[in-house]
Specification:
It contains 18 helices and 27 strands. It is an alpha/beta fold and 642 residues long. The strands form seven sheets. Strands 2-3-1-5-4 form a five-stranded antiparallel sheet. A five-stranded parallel sheet has the order 8-7-6-12-22, with helices on one face. A five-stranded antiparallel sheet has the order 23-24-27-26-25. The longest helix is centred in the middle third of the chain and has 24 residues. The N and C termini lie far apart (66 Å).
Length: 642
C-alpha cells in the first residue's frame, strides 16, 4: 500500500544527513537551532508529519518521550513530531513508523518543511490543483495522511497526489485496502455511524439484538411517547377549554384503537427511517444476534467470527430497576411496556420524578388514569432549580395528580389485585395502592456479557463505556457512542456522537466532541426546556452572572391564547453581556430554545438580541422581552416597544 508515496532518494539522504548533523535545516529552515522539547529543552534532530498516535504499540510509544526529545505541535491540518531518533523511519526516509497495533491501518509518515496556508495555496495553484479547503481535506482523508505537506521543491513530499489517489482507489476496488466497521447495536447511533461510514466507502456490518431495528427512540421511546402525549393533550384540552362561549368535551372511547394507531406509526417510521435506509446500502450487512467482542477488531455472533478494522459499540441503555423488596414479584412496567398496554389502567403509581416519569405520569393522567408520583428526592426534577420544579409541581397537582416527595420505599407487594407500596415519608409510614406500577428511576448502559473488559475496554463504575473526548475507548480500534456511554441520553446526541466517532476512526483529522451548547426538552405541559448554565453552574464556574425572569403573563402570544403558565429565565455574563444559559417553563417552550442556543454558541449579547426584530404575537417575542428585562421593567412597555 502507498507504493507511490516515496520521496526521491537524494532528498531523503539530504534530510537524514542534515537532521543527524545540523538540526532541522532542510525540513524546517525557520526553526534551525530553535526547535526543542518544551519540557527537557533537548534539541530535536528533525521533523516528520505523523498521523494517528494511537496506531503505535506501547513499545514504539516508549520512544516518544521527553527523554528522547519528542513533542507535538499543531500547524494548520498537520500534527508535527520533532524527533531526535531517526531510526523510527525506514531507510527510504518516508514510510511507516514501526510497531503498529493489531488491526490498525499503518500510519504514513514523511519529512516535511514548515509551511503556511497561504504558501500551500501558492504551491497548489502553480501545479493547477484546487486550493479549496474542502478539497485539501478530501485529499488528506483519502490519502490517510495527517497533512497535505509541501516540500521545498514543490508538490507533496509523498509524491504524485493524483497518482496516489488513483492507486488507492484501485486498491480499495480490488479489496487490497480493507476498512471494515463492525457496529454493535441497531439504534439511532448505529444508523448514524452506518451512513457516515458508507459515505467513506467503508464496509459496514451491523449486529443487532433485543429491540427491533431503530432501537429505543422509534420503538419504545421518543416516537410512541410523543404520539401518546399529544393524544392525551388533545383529550385534556377538549375538556378544559380556555375560551368563553365555546363548550367542548371529549371522552376516551377506544384505548385499543389509540394504541394500535401508535403501533402503526412506529412501524411506518421504522420502515421509512431505518429499514429503507439500509436495504440497498452497498457493502452493508445486517446480522440479527447477540455480539460479543472477540478481539480488538473482531466480534463473535451466531458462531461466526466477524473480522473488521474498527468496532463501534452503541448498544444503548435500558430501564434501571431498583433493588426493592418484593418488586420482582409484582407485574411492574417500564417505559418499554407502558406505551403498549391494551387497557388503560384505572390507577398508576410512577416510581421516579425525572423527565421520563413526569412525561408518562401526565400522559396517563390526561388519558384518564389516577396517577401518584413517588419521588425519592425532595423535589421532582431534582437537578433543576426550585423555582422551576415547584411551578411545574403546582400545575401537575392542579390536573389531579398526587406527588409525594422524600420517599424511602421499603417494600412492594400485591394485595387483592393491586400493587401496594410501603414507604416512609418524613418519618411516617405510608401505604400507596394502584392497579399498575411504572418504574422510571433512571437508565443503565447495555454492556453486560459483551466481553468488553476482556478485550481491554474500560467501564465506568455504573457499567457505562468509558471514552475520551474523541469517543475512543481504551482500545484504539474500538469506539462507543450513544446511551451506552452513560451521559447525555438523547437521540440527537447519540447520532452526533456516532458520526463523530466514525470520522475520528477513519480520518486523521480527530475532532473533540463538543457539548458546550446542549439544548434539551422535557415534553410535559407546560414544557421544560434548557440550554447552557443555570445559577448553580454559573456560580461554580466563577462567573459574575445576572438573571432575568419573564413570566409568560407578559408575553402577548400567551395572553392571547389564555394560557400564561410558566416563565422564561435568561442568564448573562455581566462582564460581556453574553448569554450563558436559559431555563424555560411554557406551553411549547421547546420552540423558543434554539434562538437562545444559537445566541450562546456564537456569543450574541442580550443587547443584540433585544435589538433584533421579533414579530408581534409570536412566542419568540418572549425571548426579546426577557432580554429587555435585564435593563427595563416590561410592565412599563407598550406593545412592541423596546
Amino acid at each position: 500500500m502507498f507504493s507511490s508515496f516515496k520521496i526521491k532518494k537524494e532528498e531523503s539522504s539530504s534530510c537524514l544527513t542534515k537532521t543527524q548533523n545540523e538540526g532541522p535545516d532542510c525540513c524546517t529552515p525557520q526553526a534551525k537551532g530553535k526547535v526543542e522539547c518544551p519540557k527537557c529543552k533537548q534539541k530535536a534532530k528533525g521533523v516528520l508529519g505523523k498521523t494517528l498516535e494511537h496506531l503505535l504499540t506501547d513499545e514504539a510509544k516508549a520512544k516518544f518521550t521527553c527523554f528522547d526529545g519528542f513533542y507535538f505541535c499543531k500547524s494548520f491540518f498537520c500534527e508535527v513530531v520533532y524527533f531526535r531518533d531517526e531510526t523510527l523511519l525506514t531507510q527510504e526516509g518516508v514510510s511507516v513508523v514501526v510497531g503498529h497495533k493489531e488491526g490498525a491501518t499503518p500510519a504514513t509518515v514523511c519529512y516535511c518543511f514548515e509551511w503556511t496556508k497561504e504558501k500551500m495555496k501558492v504551491e497548489l495553484q502553480e501545479t493547477g490543483q484546487s486550493t479549496a479547503t474542502e478539497d485539501i481535506k478530501h485529499k488528506m482523508d483519502t490519502l490517510g495522511c495527517s497533512c497535505e505537506i509541501l516540500n521545498p521543491s514543490g508538490g507533496c513530499c509523498l509524491g504524485d497526489v493524483d497518482k496516489a489517489l488513483k492507486d488507492l482507489k484501485e486498491e480499495l476496488k480490488q479489496g487490497k485496502t480493507k476498512k471494515h466497521l463492525i457496529i454493535v447495536g441497531g439504534g439511532s447511533a448505529a444508523f448514524s455511524a452506518a451512513i457516515e461510514a458508507n459515505s467513506m466507502n467503508v464496509q459496514v456490518t451491523m449486529i443487532n439484538e433485543g429491540l427491533p431495528i431503530g432501537g429505543t427512540c422509534v420503538n419504545i421511546g421518543c416516537v410512541p411517547s410523543k404520539n401518546l402525549i399529544r393524544a392525551a393533550e388533545s383529550l385534556y384540552k377538549a375538556n378544559n377549554n380556555a375560551f368563553d362561549g365555546i363548550d367542548t368535551s371529549a371522552t376516551m372511547t377506544n384505548f385499543q384503537a389509540l394504541i394500535e394507531a401508535k403501533r402503526n406509526l412506529v412501524l411506518d417510521l421504522r420502515e421509512q427511517k431505518y429499514i429503507n435506509i439500509i436495504k440497498d446500502m452497498p457493502n452493508f450487512e445486517l446480522i440479527e444476534g447477540r455480539a460479543k467482542l472477540h478481539t480488538a477488531t473482531s466480534v463473535k455472533v451466531l458462531d461466526r467470527i466477524i473480522e473488521g478494522s474498527h468496532i463501534l459499540v452503541c448498544t444503548g441503555a435500558r430501564p434501571l430497576v431498583p433493588d426493592i423488596e418484593g418488586l420482582s414479584d409484582v407485574d411492574y412496567l417500564t417505559n418499554e411496556e407502558a406505551f403498549d398496554l391494551d387497557e388503560l389502567p384505572k390507577s398508576i403509581i410512577l416510581l421516579g420524578g425525572g423527565y421520563i416519569a413526569l412525561e408518562i405520569a401526565q400522559m396517563f393522567s390526561r388519558l384518564g388514569s389516577k396517577v401518584t408520583i413517588l419521588q425519592r428526592s425532595e423535589r421532582i426534577l431534582s437537578s433543576e432549580e426550585e423555582d422551576l420544579t415547584s411551578e411545574l409541581e403546582k400545575y401537575f397537582k392542579e390536573e389531579g395528580m398526587t406527588i409525594i416527595t422524600g420517599n424511602a420505599v421499603k417494600s412492594i407487594n400485591e394485595v387483592n389485585g393491586l400493587v401496594s407500596i410501603k414507604t416512609v415519608v418524613n418519618g411516617k409510614e405510608l401505604e400507596v395502592n394502584a392497579q399498575k406500577i411504572i418504574i422510571a428511576t433512571g437508565r443503565t448502559a447495555n454492556t453486560d456479557n459483551m466481553n468488553l473488559e476482556k478485550v481491554g475496554v474500560k467501564l465506568k463504575s455504573n457499567g457505562a463505556v468509558q471514552v475520551d473526548e474523541y469517543l475512543q475507548t481504551a482500545v484504539p480500534t474500538i469506539y462507543a457512542a450513544g446511551d451506552v456511554i452513560g451521559e447525555r441520553m438523547f437521540v440527537y446526541t447519540a447520532a452526533y456522537e456516532a458520526k463523530l466517532a466514525i470520522s475520528n476512526a477513519f480520518t486523521p483529522l480527530k475532532k473533540e466532541a463538543d457539548f458546550s451548547v446542549l439544548p434539551w426538552v422535557i415534553f410535559t405541559d407546560p414544557q421544560v426546556a434548557g440550554v447552557g448554565m443555570d445559577e448553580v453552574q454559573a456560580k461554580l464556574a466563577g462567573i459574575d452572572y445576572e438573571v432575568a425572569v419573564l413570566p409568560m403573563s407578559y408575553v402577548p402570544r400567551a395572553i392571547a391564547a389564555n394560557d400564561t403558565r410558566g416563565f422564561i429565565k435568561l442568564l448573562r455574563n455581566k462582564a460581556d453581556d453574553k448569554l450563558i444559559g436559559a431555563r424555560i417553563l411554557a406551553p411549547e417552550g421547546s420552540e423558543l430554545l434554539m434562538e437562545i442556543a444559537v445566541a450562546i454558541k456564537f456569543g450574541i449579547t442580550t443587547n443584540q438580541l433585544k435589538d433584533m426584530l421579533h414579530p408581534y404575537l409570536t412566542l419568540s417575542e418572549g425571548i426579546k422581552l426577557a432580554a429587555i428585562t435585564f435593563s427595563k421593567d416590561v410592565k412599563e412597555l407598550s406593545c412592541c416597544a423596546t
